[in-house]
From TrEMBL:
Pfam families: TetR_N (PF00440)
Keyword field: DNA-binding, Transcription, Transcription regulation
Record-annotated membrane-spanning stretches: none
PANTHER family: TRANSCRIPTIONAL REGULATORY PROTEIN
Superkingdom of the organism of origin: Bacteria
DNA-binding span(s): 32-51
Protein name in the entry: TetR family transcriptional regulator
Domain HTH tetR-type: 9-69
Length: 188
């Protein structure tokens, strides 16, 4: 009996979602194809009927995860009644919740250092998606792309450092300082 229409696309999407969650949490190199497939509820034997290689999956997982993050941040902005709405996005992005929920968080701070050593295909997709994220942040803040790049870099850097340190008080201070500076960039 043949699979219903759209089955292959649904399975592929499950694999991409599983990969995005795994990469956000564990990075690219520490995650195997069998681990990703198990996370999708599948055996690893079917992987190559959906993807040519792991690099292709990494590129698609980055695209998916950044789209997911933009949608989430847009929802945060839409729920904010005060202006500027970017402040709600900054508060969410640099929150203890976002810091601690890596498996659901922004993939950019999770993978940036690994992406620099990835294939041209992955780096190209990551670059396009980073540009899309910066455009989203810039538009929401009502600032130009250069200032938007500085704003998002501040947000990413603050989150990376807050996730890296062992001292909880220092981590919270990094988030708080990052929020203050990011909001000051928008006001300037």
């Amino acid at each position: 009996m043949p699979y219903p229409k759209g089955h292959k696309i649904k399975v592929r999407n499950k694999i991409v979602e599983s990969a995005a969650q795994a990469f956000r949490t564990n990075g690219i190199h520490d995650v195997s194809v069998p681990f990703i497939m198990k996370g999708a509820g599948l055996t690893h034997g079917g992987f190559y009927s959906h993807f040519d290689n792991k690099e292709q999956l990494v590129a698609e997982a980055c695209r998916y995860a950044i789209s997911d993050t933009i949608a989430l941040l847009q929802k945060v902005a839409d729920q904010e009644e005060q202006n500027p709405k970017i402040n709600a996005v900054i508060d969410y992005y640099l929150s203890p919740y976002h810091r601690d929920k890596m498996e659901m968080g922004c993939i950019i701070p999770a993978l940036s250092s690994e992406i620099s050593r990835s294939s041209e295909e992955v780096r190209q997709v990551f670059t396009q998606e980073l540009e899309r994220m910066i455009a989203f942040i810039s538009n929401l803040a009502g600032i130009d792309a250069s200032k938007g790049s500085a704003l998002f870099s501040t947000m990413v850097g603050s989150l990376v450092l807050a996730r890296t340190v062992k001292d909880p008080e220092l981590s919270d201070n990094l988030l708080s300082s990052g929020k203050q500076y990011a909001k000051a960039l928008v006001r300037a």
